[in-house]
Amino acid sequence: MNFCRGIPGLTGLFLFSLFLGGCTTRPRADLIICNGAEPQTLDPALVSGQLEGRLCSALLEGLLRRDARGKAVPGTAEKWTTSPDGKVYTFTLRPNLRWSNGDPLTSSDYRWSWLRALHPATASPYSEIFYFIRGAEAYHSGKSPSESVGIETPDERTLVVHLEHPTPFFPALTAFTTYLPVHQATVEKFKDGWIRPENWVGNGPYRLLDWEINDRVSLKKNPLYHTPGRVQIERIDALAVNRASTAFNLYSSDQADVLLDKGMIPSLILPELRGRSDFHPGPLLATYFYRFNVTRPPFNDVRVRRAFALAIDKEIITEKITRGNEPVAQSLTPRGIADYLPPEGLPPDPETARALLKGAGFPEGRGFPRVSLLYNKSELNEQIAVEIQAQWKRVLGVEVELRNQEWATYLRSLDTLDFDIARSSWVGDYDDPNTFLDCFVTDRGNNRTGWSNPEYDSLLTHARSEPNPARRLELLQKAETLLLTDALPIIPIYHFIGCLMFDPNKWGGLYPNLLDEHPLSEITKQTR
Fold it and tell me: Do 56 and 35 form a contact (C-beta atoms < 8 A)?
């Protein structure tokens, strides 16, 4: 499609053509989605963001995969069994599985890929998601060899996994990004360059056709996928779009077909969208929050962290900025997980906040050091940051600078603790409080606060081995209470509401769901 035809000046579609790289005769993809920022990587062992995970799950497939409603269903594994004690899972792969270059895919590919993600040199931010496997944590910490990890491959189609403790949701975990397989020979040959389109070898429903930096990732149907008839869309372009206004304009002008999350929709127009047939809201297991770098003064003082938390009026943020009927977050874990009642956390209390800051040596903010609030570039993140900056100034008398970065740079800043306060969000990887709380165990890749608490670590450890479900949830609730009312390395702000935008007369296979899973291979084109 030529983006430059019929243009009365520097408006309308010409602006879109500038965004998409100028005038082009590139054939339009069968489906165009706005995917968010430029991907940091497509290596599943290194991915920590949702937008990258969405692409990885189209290009690679785990033992299980997620369907359009977020349910874990068979992927490359056709079946699996569980031992009577719940600690051994045996997965049987489909026959005649192939990589996109024609090589056979076997159980050994999964074992090698999982051990690669666990290897300390890989520096996977999600290595802890393997710690359910016997010996995985010890191997990752360098205390034992790879042979001690409980992953066996008795034959090419059988993968036997020994767990530390019974973990009923383990099969569903194998659909997660970090559990996806990679092609050993390709990774060893090209090193970091294996993710380039010219080198790519995958096993998913799509193969990597092209990757134009700061523009788009193009996917094309993989003819060697085990069930190619399940995949209806031949080619997909995932656009790199930072600004919600840009994404919504692309969608409104038919330059994009689907918006996959609320961050792609300007918050100011959300009330006007309700009731439209192409607006699809739904509950979401996700939380928007701020993290402190507790290794840097003044936020190494819990009194300062508590003062900053108590000074925020979260209802103003959801009522005036996000405007999507989001629940204010007093806990990290959203409500809705079966049988789990999150703690209440801390309500706003300006008077106590000022007293705490005074007790820490900064009466009315006097003498408070220069600090900054980091966020990845987006209009919504900026609007929230500006409001909270003003609240901290008004209540505490402190000046907080605002600092924004592109997605990949922002993630590196989080990983290296190069921030004072940082905007973050977390979407549950599975339907259990552990998916939120395990992030803040000492030295977890997703901790990104520098916080460490032996009591908290112990509660999570005991919860993992607790056979009584009710007692297990009590331990998790106690840990979350410690996290949010005693230590406060984070401040929950609000819980997300999922929002999809697509024309249901044109597209199917898209449904709001708690885990915000929208597999690209499930999307269909309506024929009516």
Answer: no
Helix (H, G, I), strand (E, B) or coil at 459: helix
Say if residues 347 and 492 touch (Cβ distance below 8 Å).
no
Query: What 3-state class would DSSP assign to 72?
Result: strand
231 pLDDT exceeds 50?
Answer: yes
Closest to 368 (Cα-Cα) out of 398, 393, 395: 398
Token pair recorded at residue 327: 């629940």
Q: What is the per-residue pLDDT across 115-152, written as a single tens digit (0 to 9) for each? A: 999 999 999 999 999 999 999 999 999 999 999 999 99
Question: Residue 104: is the preceding peptide bond cis (ω within 30°)?
Answer: no
Polymer length of the chain: 528
Whether the bond into 298 is cis, omega within 30 of 0: yes
Do the strands 31-36 and 258-259 form a parallel or antiparallel pair, or are they unpaired? parallel
User: What percentage of residues in the chain have a pLDDT greater than 90?
Assistant: 85
pLDDT at 401 over 70: yes
Q: How far apart are CA 525 and CA 507, in angstroms?
A: 5
Portion of the chain with pLDDT greater than 70, in percent = 95
Residue 4 has pLDDT above 80, yes or no: no
Ramachandran angles phi, psi of 489, nearest 5°: -75, -10
- Closest CA relative to residue 126, chosen from 172, 191, 205, 179: 179
Split at pLDDT 50, 70, 90, the class of 491 is very high
142 dihedral zone (left: phi>0; alpha: psi -120 to 50; beta):
left
**Which residue from 278, 311, 343, 385 is spatially nearest to 474, judged by alpha carbons?**
343
13-256+502-525 is a CATH 1.10.3720.10 domain? no
pLDDT of amino acid 527: 78
What is the mean predicted confidence (pLDDT) over 368-377? 96
Q: Would you say the CATH fold of 282-498 matches that of 13-256+502-525?
A: no
Question: Alpha helices of 318-419 — where are they, by DSSP H?
Answer: 350-359, 379-396, 407-415
| Sequence ranges of the domains in the chain | 13-256+502-525, 282-498
Calpha distance 224→205 (Å, rounded): 8
Do 167 and 36 form a contact (C-beta atoms < 8 A)?
A: no
Q: If you classify domain 282-498 with CATH, what class do you get? A: alpha beta
Q: Considering only CA atoms, which of 163, 250, 168, 237 is closest in space to residue 206?
A: 237
Give 504's contacts (C-beta < 8 A, 6+ positions apart): 277, 278, 280, 526
Helix axes 302-310, 379-396, angle to 10 degrees: 110
Instruction: Kindly list the distances between the CA atom of residue 407 and the CA atoms of 205, 213, 340, 414, 430, in Å, as whole numbers in the listed order.
Output: 26, 13, 33, 11, 24
SS3 label, residue 57: helix
> How many alpha carbons lie under 13 Å from residue 135 in its C-beta half-sphere?
13
C-alpha 62/C-alpha 235 separation (Å) is 21
Distance of CA 310 to the CA centre of its chain: 27
